[in-house]
């Protein structure tokens, strides 16, 4: 969102005809339109929620940025980007503020992890339908991680990365969830996982137009080194898709070793963009299967598309990210 | 070493004139020659100590493989390769056997780490000169890790890798050693670190003849994915060189982001090699500086060369891996 001070904060890279009166409020309006159109069960904000450098008061900017989700009463979750801490609050302060806001499911950090790098590493379990055999069981696991801001290692330039402590927490959480799920199910079944963080992995650079859906209009601004989180996710086995922010002009999903690597696409109006190329948001829909007994069962497929902030909230690039009955190409 | 059953186990890829009578005993003799020539303070075996597939009794093969070091009474350390467990002992069993042998400094796993992947993850501290200001202080830190054998993840082919649990242990151990060192020194000083494991990292593929010392005569047989250990080492800050085995025909050192990535070079006679290209071993020498008071101080430089198992144990490719007074090219 790159939210700053609201209506006094101008839009970047919009058509000349759109400049007048354009501000952070257009970002807010876009959230409202998305909520109206999609009636989402959860909204995930993938970092750079505020653009700290230009936020006079980070707490106020955060309040304003998340206000449409809060006003709608829809559960929401956020992770940190690389710009959130550049205002009047530290990274720790931003995350502490976020977890105190209404209707958020964001968490500061896992309670069981003694020491973990970053702020806002947590997971959420999406329970099955009440009254079904999947009630009180997670049918979809969501993981949220802090991918850092900038390298603090002089010999490594550029952006931050997901550290071993975070990867170990993720690995153990995934293993625990898989054990619990298996133990609780009569039939062999499986809860797919989705992972959200801000900075794309180096593996995002593996794709081109021949093997992704969407566009790549700028370089992949990953960390300049590989910290191994892609490997850790592949090894964990449950992750089917990853969603990142960071690069505003890339909005593709590409599949590698069974995991879809997806950008959300640039959303905020006070963020660099491309003139004439609409701001956009990614929608993710997990559908349940019907069991033999006619009730609701496990997740059978995960689909995605994007909506453009144009006159019709045009939906583009619909695709199946994962389907229970399809073996992914590896 | 790829040790199997001793004198009945033939040599691979030697000159026709060398075939007759050539066996594992040539490997043993090479260790003895190296000990005679170098009078080392420590011998490190970088995995595939035995070639399990052809060892009738893994325990006996291990005993025989390390016998020259044990007989000489020289402290030695070993890590596991990908072939050690292919005989009558599991990976755990091989490492348990190793730590019970005489004069070894090998350890099974760190006691403080609750759960860690692999067997034979440990560190050693090399103390400064007795009577000097560096007595009872580590002037050189050695880290040993189990880089695994083969991937157990169906979608990832090939060799194993260093896991998040091991990286976190390494990271915390390095940080602890650096804190202790700083706290104990009046002047700002620094204990360099050396890391030993079997399977090279994907980063070993970054070099060619223009920026390494030695040769590359085969592909880099790293894991097919990057698990981030190079990044973790760079971030730790103390590691100056890494030494791996695995590829018998590569023996180079190349520097990247301040860390020398080195192969040992093929040593064992019952291991694939190249006809007419001598088996070889890498020597590493850490030299101490003289303090202003005329006593021995911290490590001032780390040099390396290789010795060939030819008539003269010819030394080749001498180079400085790290020097306290040189800022490395990054």
TrEMBL record, chains A, B:
It is found in: Secreted. InterPro entries: Calcineurin-like_PHP (IPR004843), Metallo-depent_PP-like (IPR029052), PAP14/16/28/29 (IPR011230). The keyword Secreted applies. Keywords: Glycoprotein, Iron, Metal-binding, Secreted, Signal, Zinc. Its cofactor is Zn(2+). Homodimer. This is Probable inactive purple acid phosphatase 29. The lineage of its organism: Eukaryota, Viridiplantae, Streptophyta, Embryophyta, Tracheophyta.
């Amino acid at each position: 969102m790159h939210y700053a001070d609201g209506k006094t904060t101008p839009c970047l890279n919009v058509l000349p005809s759109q400049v007048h009166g354009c501000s952070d409020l257009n970002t807010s309006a876009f959230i409202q339109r998305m909520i109206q159109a999609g009636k989402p069960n959860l909204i995930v904000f993938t970092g750079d929620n505020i653009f700290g450098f230009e936020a006079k008061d980070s707490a106020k900017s955060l309040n304003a940025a998340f206000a449409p989700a809060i006003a709608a009463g829809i559960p929401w979750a956020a992770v940190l980007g690389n710009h959130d801490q550049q205002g009047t609050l530290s990274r720790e302060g931003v995350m502490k503020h976020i977890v105190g806001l209404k209707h958020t499911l964001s968490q500061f950090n896992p309670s069981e992890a003694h020491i973990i790098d970053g702020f806002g590493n947590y997971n959420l379990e999406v329970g099955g339908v009440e009254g079904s055999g999947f009630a009180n069981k997670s049918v979809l696991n969501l993981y949220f991680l802090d991918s850092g801001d900038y390298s603090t290692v002089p010999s490594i330039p550029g952006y931050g990365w997901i550290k071993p402590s975070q990867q170990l927490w993720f690995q153990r959480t995934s293993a625990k969830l898989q054990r619990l799920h298996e133990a609780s199910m009569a039939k062999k079944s499986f809860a797919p996982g989705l992972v959200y963080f801000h900075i794309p992995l180096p593996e995002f650079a593996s794709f081109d137009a021949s093997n992704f859906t969407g566009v790549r209009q700028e370089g992949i601004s990953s960390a300049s080194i590989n910290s191994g989180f892609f490997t850790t996710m592949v090894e964990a086995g449950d992750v089917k898709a990853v969603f990142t922010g960071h690069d505003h002009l890339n909005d593709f999903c590409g599949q590698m070793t069974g995991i879809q690597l997806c950008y959300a696409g640039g959303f905020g109006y006070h963020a660099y963009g491309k003139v004439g190329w609409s701001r956009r948001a990614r929608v993710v829909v997990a559908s349940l299967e019907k069991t033999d007994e006619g009730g609701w069962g496990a997740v059978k497929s995960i689909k995605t598309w994007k909506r453009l902030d144009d006159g019709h909230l045009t939906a583009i690039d619909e695709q199946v990210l994962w389907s229970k009955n399809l073996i992914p190409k590896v």
